[in-house]
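Hi R.,

Here's the chain you asked about this morning:
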Amino acid sequence: MKASKLLSASLLANLAAMALVLAAVLAIEAGSTRPLDRSLLGAIAMLGVQLLVVAAVAILFSALTSTTLAAIFTLAIAIAGHLSGEVRAIWQGDATWIATLVWYLVPNLGALSLNASVVYRTPPPPGTWLAAGYGALYAASALALASFAFEKRDLR
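And here is the predicted structure, written out as tokens:
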């Protein structure tokens, strides 16, 4: 559990550093702090939740498989997580249960993205904090499964 806390802290520290650089660039470019609004802060916070979800999935796969496979599976889940809403929306036909199963198993990282609110300068949607709770619950579930899988490993 200490490794996951260290990984989360380093990811969030990197995100904070990048957010500060982005804020400085935006402020210098605009000549004021006008671009630094609620939508940008919300998007950065939700990006932190996305990072924590992907890190939890990476820890889960690293507890189950080799390093190479864990990296491949984590990348695949991250890409699928960003595309899961679109896949479910366009999946038509007799086997819609497959799309529903994928919808529930793959993290919905698209719901954790506030890019549109930053681009169009709108406030974050009302369900934003519900989506953040979903991301935290998904990450906690992945870490619990990783802990369970790691306990069952024979490290001799």
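One quick note: The chain has a mean pLDDT of 87.

Cheers,
M.
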